[in-house]
Amino acid sequence: MNPKEEKVKIISQEFTEDGVEVDAEVERRKKSRIQRQQKKKKPPTTAPEEMVSDKSHEEYQQKMQETVEEEPESHLLSVTTRRGPRSLPPIPSASRTGFAEFSMRERMREKLQAARSKAESALLQEIPTPRPRRLQSPSERESETEFGPEPSKEVQGTRQEDDSQSCSRVKFRDSVRKIKSKPQAPAGFPSAEEAYNFFTFNFDHEPEEPEDKSNAKDRDRAQEDEGREEETPAGRAKKTEEEELLNGKDAEDFLLGLDPTVHNVVAVKPAEYKSAHVRLQKEKETLFTPSRLAVPTYKKLPENVQPRFLEDEGLYIGARPEVASTSQNIMENRLLMQEPVGKWFGDDGRILALPSPIKPFPSRPSLSTQEQSAKAELETLYKKAMKYVHSNQRMIGSGDPPGNFQLDIDISGLIFTHHPCFSREHVLASKLALLYDQYLARQQRNKAKFLTDKLQALRNAVQRGFNPEEPHQTLDATQKTINEYKSEIRQTRKLRDTEQEKDRTLLKTLLKVWKEMKSLREFQRFTNTPLKLVLRKGKVDQKADEEAYEAEIQAEIQELLEEHTEDYKKKMEEYRASHQQWKAWRKAQRAKKKKKKKAAEEHTDEEEAEEPFPEEDVVKPIPPEPTDPGLIEQQVRERAAHSRRRPGEPMLVPELSLAGNVTPSDQCPRVEVSRREDVKRRSVYLKVLFNGKEVSRTVTRQLGADFRVHFGQIFNLQIFNWPESLMLQVYETVGHSSTTLLAEVFLPIPETTIVTGRAPMEEVEFSSNQHVTLDHEGVGSGVPFSFEADGSNQLTLMTSGKVSHSVAWAIGENVTIKWNISKLSFLKSNTVATSGESYVPDFFRLEQLQQEFNFVSDEELNRSKRFRLLHLRSQEVPEFRNYKQIPVYDREIMEKVFQDYEKRLRDRNVIETKDHLDTHRATVAKYLQQVRESVINRFLIAKHHFLLTDLVVEEEVPNISILGLSLFKLAEQKRPLRPRRKGRKKVTAQNLSDGDIKLLVNIIRAYDIPVRKPMVSKFQQPSRSSRTFNEKHSASPSGHSPGHSADYPLGQVLVRPFVEVSFQRTICHTTTAEGPNPSWNEELELPFRAPNGDYSTASLQSVKDDVYINIFDEVLYDVLEDDRERGSGIHTRIERHWLGCVKIPFSTIYFQARIDGTFKIDIPPVLLGYSKERHIIMERAFDSARSLSEGSYITLFITIEPQLVPGEPIREKFDSQEDEKLLQAAEKFQAECNLKFPCRHCLTTVIDLSGKTVFITRYLKPLNPPQELLNVYPNNPQATAELVARYVSLIPFLPDTVSFAGICDLWSTSDQFLDLLAGDEEEHAVLLCNYFLSLDKKAWLVMGSAIPEGPTAYVLTWEKNHYLIWNPCSGHCYGQFDTFCPLKSVSCLIGPDNIWFNIQHYDSPLRINFDVTKPKLWKSFFSRSLPYPGLSSVQPEELLYQHTDKAAAAELQDRIEKILKEKIMDWRPRHLTRWNRYCTSTLRHFLPLLERSQGEGIEEDHRAELLKQLGDYRFSGFPLHMPYSEVKPLIEAVYSTGVHNIDVPNVEFALAVYIHPYPKNVLSVWIYVASLIRNR
Amino acid sequence: MAEVHVIGQIIGATGFSESSLFCKWGIHTGAAWKLLSGVREGQTQVDTPQVGDMAYWSHPIDLHFATKGLQGWPRLHLQVWSQDSFGRCQLAGYGFCHVPSSPGTHQLDCPTWRPLGSWQEQLARAFVGGGPQLLHADTIYSGADRYRLHTAAGGTVHLDIGLLLRHFDRYGVEC
């Protein structure tokens, strides 16, 4: 059903709703009427007679009638309804209806129209084929309306046809079907409505109709005819044809199954056609066809104008574009027709034309290449389904085709430097060859010559410098340069001498070996080796030589003399100055003596005050001795004779050749023959092992008589896995018996830049530990033999040799391999950390118009602070990592945010000496910073590798044992008698902010705090007598005796200590307790703030702050001025005196989670006014053990609230050069140990500074301590050991966790450690252990845990009958059974050749047995099943120590003193800080003494001296001692003592710094701080 | 100076014949764009749907760009991979779509395709896995003439992307 009808229907429904009972008939009529209205100008043309007695026909007619009746239609409708003869159901109120209908109809019409147009357009879309041309004619439409009178059943169908008369029938049908969404009634059947109409129809008025109709028709037709006439002239002519066509249509209808009755009504017409002839005729009339003939020129030109040819006149006219002449003619004709002569033609009578724009050759590059590339881009590659391997970096990229990497291993040969079959002669020969090689190498470098030349040049320069003829330099500058030259000359000379000496000795040994060999050959009467040393004598001109020699010596003497005289002069001056001083002093002394005699006794007081240098005992200086030129000459000559070629001595040039003859076997003794046969039986081959797997082996080659084997084989390894190890195994076969593995040689994996062809041949040495004894001339291996007849001077040689090889990456013809190699290197270096900007697409794209459309310029974009900040934060630049909340606007970002960062960038290469005061340390700090950065980058990447357990937290399914345990818990006591500490909930660091974390410090009690010496506190105004008493008393060594306690005034306690905890400049303190063994039991809470507010694990690990726990004594002073007021008021002043401190790094607390224990208080060696109260403790029996060890102790409990999760150790497998087998064994050993004792940490491999895994025993090796230290106590090994320990402890401590975020322990070798001058426990322990080993002690590294460091390393030594445990960081040693030993548990011992794991029940050093030979107590790594393979050490052969520059140390000392003084003044902003210079100088004299005695046993002397000098001051102060690393810790330490806090108005300060330099820039710093208050 | 935040997630994929799927994704921008923070590319987990045929990844994308021009508006390119029962991975489809340019949240459906390859390759793919892959992955989003490439349709990747734009109006870009 088409939409129109539907609409109609809806409208009818509206009617009914209106209350008008509209008959279906009416409705129908209405419908048709509406149709009519829409095409009212198209009345039917067919004869009315034909439509007979048909209901619908009649109906139709009726409608026609209505149509004829003119508008307004509302009238019409009402009229029809009224007039309508058919008895419709009664209409209650026609007028009402009519009115309603009027508006309704209007609406209906609109809707219908819309619907119709829609349907039409739909149809049009459906049938885009051109409509039949008849369409235009209204007559045809007319004719189609005649379809209306169809059998009633067809009504609907017809109507539809009405709508779409224009369409061809079949298609129409289709479209109808399409449009019909829900057919109301099946075609061919009357609908209920129609049926009703049929039966209720009244046919009364039928006779009237034809008339009416014919009338109407006539009129209609007339109208139509007019319209038709108006339309087209041709329209009329077609009329007849149209009628025919109609008939045809009817036939069609019939065919389509329409009612056959319709056939009668329709006329069939032939197709309209106009004959071509007629058409042409017509066209001729209307159209113009330009002729194709050429137009004569005159027509194209204005009249009487001759054509002018510009080209003939010599003007340039471009080539006209090619146009066919016919086309041109047509164009010309047309143009002429339009406007006879015009602007279209040129002077030559041709059409104007521009020169042809077409270029003769293409300017675009040929497309062929482009096309190719496009194809290449679209290229696809079939890839096999592949598995992803988790650790991507060990693979060669996931997407790369395998086998693209090829490692070429070229094994050219093998040379034995020792072999069991070597005869004695061979041994010598190889030695000779080695020496000769050395000689050649030296000869090539020819350093001696170079240095001599340099020396000569320098001398010349000096000579010229003295030359006054060169005036362009100022005298000052010349002097300076000359001095420089001279010092350089001195150095060069020294170097040259040593070089020459070396050359000479080498030559000598070479000759000696050759002689030995010759004698051996003579002795055994045959030769085995073709080696032959020929000495060539160079010709020398004796005279010239002598002269040169003499000149040289003279020059040297001259120089030396000059130096000496200079020295002498200097010394002389010094001497004179001091002598004068001495004289003055003598004079003063004499005068004083005279005065003294004169003066009366009571004047002593004044005298003392006057005495300026009471103590300074000026010694009479000794004048320096002038140097004796003769002596110098002698020295020089001696040296020259020793190291230089004597004049006239021929120049010897040794030449080693293989020209000698080897004695044939038949002339040799039997043993030799059998040796030679044995050699012939032996053959050698090599196996190539890649990542521990054998990949190929060389051919087996017989050992030559010269013990050289030539292979010359190249192995190409196509590798897929990342190369971890490349090893060659040397195998030897004797005869047909089994092969023996001689040695394993590890080859380094080449850099990716080393490719085939560029790789040099290298020689790798190997050695074997096999022991071979042979029954012939061969000397064997690993067995001692001797060249001497008596068997003395034995030698033991091991089989050794060299493999010459080269390893390189192969390059194929294919470029991709090269590319892959570069990728490989990228993988290897693994520094993806440069994220962000590194993304550069590998194609180039022209950004057209980018510039024009840019919002802002690049500079402006880069200038944006916000973007910069965001970018830096995402790059995890240390300064901005975890920076929170970046402001939205640029203006809110301060410029200073970047200052630090920019400064760091600037300073990266500039060594800043300001912060460090010492260039060496500054460079070290830089280096450390670089190492740190690279390590951090490494860990940043490693951190992004996740395992399943990191991402998925899965609680274990409870099994029966857990269930049972929990059941068991139910029966537990609610309040157990011995409650256990419950584990706290751990908090992950990320969701924390400032103020969430607190540090809880629980201070419980202290033992053995120093007590005040009574006199100082007692006497406010010391009288002379009391002072003398003091003096006398303190001079007595017994210090303090119980008798003196009687001196205490009643109620005055010994000491009133309190504890102050300072952390991150927040300070908390406890209440004051009394007595030397106070008990506080107080909890202090300190807030913790992470740097930058960054609470990530990495950041927390690197917090460098320390917790300082200072113990002070609170002293009350009466400040009453007037004794009379004493009754009415109390005026006291509280002073606090620092007694000692405990320093605990925050990182320790962080990793330990809690620290619980008794710590030794670090008390300065001299604490003026205090002494240890020993006797009181002695009385207590239970504490007697404690008192055995000296010092004071404090019991603490420190924790962090909430508990933080310490970071996980980084799981990253580092590459290693260790044997794969060893690594596996290490892993196995570790796993076994962990299984047994999970809390004992077993260490087998560690990571060195370059990030490689190294087996731990390689770190231990005897290393020489500085000679200086050994010379101090040559006869006292114990004292030497202590001194060495002290030296080690003076190297600053820097925990790895601080330097390397991420928990990884990097071990540096001892020389690196000494160069860096910073390290943590392990480095200290390793160095100390190595020193002890070189002192011939039995020493081990102890891995265990201690208080407060946590897991740490100590050193254990075996002294005659007991063990000593050394703390490498403090330098203290403890006996095994010392209760105060900070080491609390021992997990493993490490020696230079083995590791022992503690499998005893206990791990406290008190309770375990250190005898590692007992396998029941100690599980050893290397055992019988896995023998020690003889690992070489990573440590250097020996340590070299430079002397520290004393002058630099002194300078540093001054600077530190200055800085500290300034700081103290800064800390006292409200007060005047006065410095007591006198006191300072006294202290300065005292500090070196302290260093010498290591802070022991001189306290009393010092006190006495101080009192003597500063008697009228109340003095409180102490020396601090620490290793020097930076200035900041020193400042911190001084600050923490709180000396500056005294605010007594007349206080004075004294501060002295002393730096004692040890070799290798190790500095021991002493700082003496004191405050003085003048007693009234 | 304008800023763009691209925040959203790769929800999942439907319509792939393979079942265990994961997706590698990346965002490509023009030269005028600067990544301030966020990760430009990534890979989702492997999802094996138990109910229904949609593989859910719910993989977050969070990027912050600064730009000095409109050219090279960020584009997302996706590669859907499937993992077979042996744990081997093979390509299941390439996809590409532009990041929307109007602020607000957008639900994107990105249809994918994969190269078909020769009949031998198809056969091999059917039996032994693997399959042809593009040598140059940028063909996915660069407009090279791809008509030569024979492809088969893969499934659809669904994305949910929210956009925040800042300061575009300052430069006369309405959004």
Outline of chain A:
extended
Number of E-state strands of chain B: 10
Q: How many alpha or pi helices of chain B?
A: 1
The helix-and-strand class of chain A reads alpha+beta
Average pLDDT level of chain B: 88
* First and last CA, distance of chain A: 127 Å
Number of E-state strands of chain A: 41
Family (chain B): Belongs to the B9D family.
Protein name (chain B): B9 domain-containing protein 2
InterPro entries (chain B): C2_B9-type_dom
GO cellular component, one term (chain B): centrosome
Structure write-up:
The complex is a heterodimer of chains A (1576) and B (175). By secondary structure, chain A is of the alpha+beta class. The radius of gyration of chain A is 58 Å and the shape is extended. In chain B, 6% of the residues lie in helices and 54% in strands. In chain B, strand 6 (75-83) and strand 7 (88-98) form a beta hairpin. The longest helix of chain B is centred in the last third of the chain and has 10 residues, at 119-128. Chain B is globular, with a radius of gyration of 17 Å. The two termini of chain B are 16 Å apart. The mean pLDDT of chain B is 88.
Lay out the secondary structure.
The complex is a heterodimer of chains A (1576) and B (175).
Chain A: H1 3-18, H2 24-38, H3 55-68, H4 73-83, H5 94-126, H6 138-145, H7 155-163, H8 169-179, H9 192-200, H10 208-231, H11 239-255, H12 262-265, H13 276-286, H14 297-300, H15 325-338, H16 367-378, E1 380-383, E2 386-387, E3 405-418, H17 424-445, H18 447-466, H19 475-524, E4 532-538, H20 542-598, H21 604-610, H22 629-643, E5 651-657, H23 670-681, E6 682-690, E7 693-697, E8 701-702, E9 708-719, E10 726-734, E11 739-747, E12 762-767, E13 784-785, E14 795-796, E15 800-809, H24 815-829, H25 850-853, H26 858-863, H27 865-874, H28 899-907, H29 919-943, H30 948-951, H31 960-970, E16 986-987, E17 998-1007, E18 1011-1012, H32 1014-1018, H33 1024-1035, E19 1057-1063, E20 1066-1069, E21 1079-1087, H34 1097-1101, E22 1106-1118, E23 1132-1145, H35 1146-1152, E24 1154-1161, E25 1170-1171, H36 1174-1179, H37 1184-1188, E26 1192-1201, E27 1203-1204, H38 1220-1236, E28 1245-1248, E29 1253-1255, H39 1267-1272, H40 1277-1289, H41 1296-1299, E30 1306-1307, H42 1310-1316, H43 1321-1334, E31 1338-1346, E32 1350-1359, E33 1362-1366, E34 1373-1375, E35 1383-1390, E36 1395-1398, E37 1418-1420, ...
Parallel strand pairs in A: 16-27, 28-30, 38-40
Antiparallel strand pairs in A: 3-9, 3-15, 4-5, 6-7, 6-8, 6-10, 10-11, 12-15, 13-14, 17-21, 17-26, 18-25, 19-20, 19-22, 22-23, 24-26, 28-29, 31-32, 31-35, 32-33, 33-34, 35-36, 36-37, 39-41, 40-41
Helix pairs in contact in A: 1-5, 2-3, 3-10, 4-5, 6-11, 17-19, 18-19, 19-22, 20-22, 33-46, 40-43, 44-47
Chain B: E1 2-14, E2 21-28, E3 33-38, E4 41-43, E5 55-67, E6 75-83, E7 88-98, E8 104-115, H1 119-128, E9 131-134, E10 151-166
Antiparallel strand pairs in B: 1-5, 1-10, 2-4, 2-6, 3-5, 6-7, 7-8, 8-10
